Amino acid sequence: MIAIRPSFHRKMALIFLLCIMMLIGLSSTITYWKFNEIMRRQVLSDLNQIMAQNKVNLDNLINGLDKATLLLYTDHTIMNILNNQPDDYMQIYDDIGQLNNELSKYMFIPLHSSLSAYTITFFVSPDMPFAKSLYSGEDFFYGFYNGNDKLRTPWYRQAVEADGRLIWFTDPAKPEQVFIARLIKNPEALSLRNIRMGKEVIENVGVVVIGFRTSELGKPLEASKLSPSTELMIVDSQGTPIYSLNPHHPAFPVIAEQTQPSATITHEGTDYLINRSPLAFGWQLLAFIPLDDIAGGSTIVRYIVGLSALSALCAGIFLSYLISSQITAPIRKLARTMKTIMLTDRLNVYLEPPKGNDEVDILYESFNNMMTRIRQLLEDVYESGVRLKEAELRALQAQINPHFLYNTLDSVNWLALESGVDEIAEINSSLSSMYRYIMKDANDMVTLDDELQQIRHYVNIQSICYPDRFEIHYDLSPELLSAMCPKLIFQPLIENAIVHGIEKSPGKGRIDIRGYIENQTAVLTITDNGAGCSIEDLNAFLEGKRNALQVSQGYGIRNVNRRIQLKFGDAYGLHYEAGGTRGVTAIIRIPA
């Protein structure tokens, strides 16, 4: 099964798409989270403001009740009537009417603006003289009543114990109502004059009770719901609910010991944010808001963020495809061209570089240069092949001439022997050996011993041509004879020593061939005592700096030096030194 590799275009588009998706996901998550935080803080801020306003409204209601009941302390008419015993029924009737009028005067104005329906009942202490003229109060009505039947009730005893402070209580028979009570003291008992005179005055006048429906507490709260599921509740100091804005809502567990202004609770599987504000009498105003309602306000934002993310994703897919296409199009074009070259071997190709001075432009230029270079190399290889074939043909043709020359030399050698000319026979024999040595493969390496044998044949011929004109001496270490060297490195040097040195000087010449090993290098010297020449010119010519030497002398020694360096490196080769008083010394260095 052949695995399908994704193209570079698809890889780049996928990378762009993944980057865009990560950015969109991260930005959407941060935006949604940040908006929820802002909305939560806004809801808490609004709730705190509403709770503060509700607290002010409820405190105003309670303060109004407190002020209304305190005014009874200063009413001397009420106190004078309650402190006296009337003489007849008409007086009682008039006094009761006046008491009710005074009660309305003090209570109507401060309470009417806060309560729409209420009862005010003044239970007069049985110790007051006028109490005997009043009806007994078995229920809470408007007016003054004898409090004899209420002395043993818990709320009455609580009001007496409070000693003039407001208390509240509820009646189990009337769960929809709440009552505020205060003990009214006799101002006469506090009079300094009566205290000095030792006059006995009844201290407690009675208890005034103001009753109203618990719904009156909810009027300031009705317009303060942040959501349909928001629950507002007033509880007493024991955590018992006094009022609930939504009586049909399931009851909430009230955590009385919790003192934080706000907290989160879970009730019946729903998470609520609870906020509390303290009121008078140890009451607390509680608000329960479902966290889903807070998050519900962010639904539209969630939709907007989701729609924006989806739109951005679609745009990202399009842009990633477009951008990757623009980037990879030149590369894909180059890949197709290279594949075509691989399949068709068509090298005459040129690609127009895309506009722009970037890496793709450099890649196109490099490709065009590479194709041009490949075409040139192929042409060079083709031409070299043609030239090689021509050289092989010429070599095959030239093989005919050596055979003819060998046969001719053999014929000359037999004629010289038959004619008794030994010198000619000796020259012919040496020349034939030299020719066979020379005609071997030019690239073959030979031993130094073979090269010396070749030199002896050459010297033998020159000795016959120049009888008694020179002598040659050999002094080479035996271990050098097996060293490898290129062919014909001695013959040009000895020829120069004879032709350009010894022949031009008087007297018999001498040539010394020496060899020794120095630092793993074979050092070979050819010294003559001839006419000599400029050593500087010789070495400069070897280095290619001058061309002043004779052609035959110059090309021979340059050929020797170049072949040694090509074979062994520039550290080896040929150079000249002075040969004593006269003559020159050629020094060859090759690896030992």
Structural topology:
Blueprint: H1 8-70, H2 76-82, H3 89-112, E1 118-124, E2 143-146, H4 154-162, E3 167-171, E4 174-185, H5 192-197, E5 204-213, H6 215-218, E6 231-235, E7 241-244, E8 262-267, E9 270-278, E10 284-290, H7 291-296, H8 299-344, H9 359-398, H10 400-419, H11 422-438, E11 445-447, H12 448-465, E12 470-476, E13 484-486, H13 491-502, E14 509-518, E15 521-528, H14 535-542, H15 551-568, E16 573-578, E17 584-591
Parallel strand pairs: 1-2, 12-14
Antiparallel strand pairs: 1-5, 3-4, 4-5, 6-7, 6-10, 8-9, 9-10, 11-13, 14-15, 15-17, 16-17
Helix pairs in contact: 1-3, 1-8, 10-11, 11-12, 13-15
Keywords for this entry:
phosphoprotein; alpha+beta; Sensor histidine kinase; 15 helices; 19% strand; HATPase_dom; cell membrane; 5 domains; 592 residues; Bact_2-comp_sensor_kinase
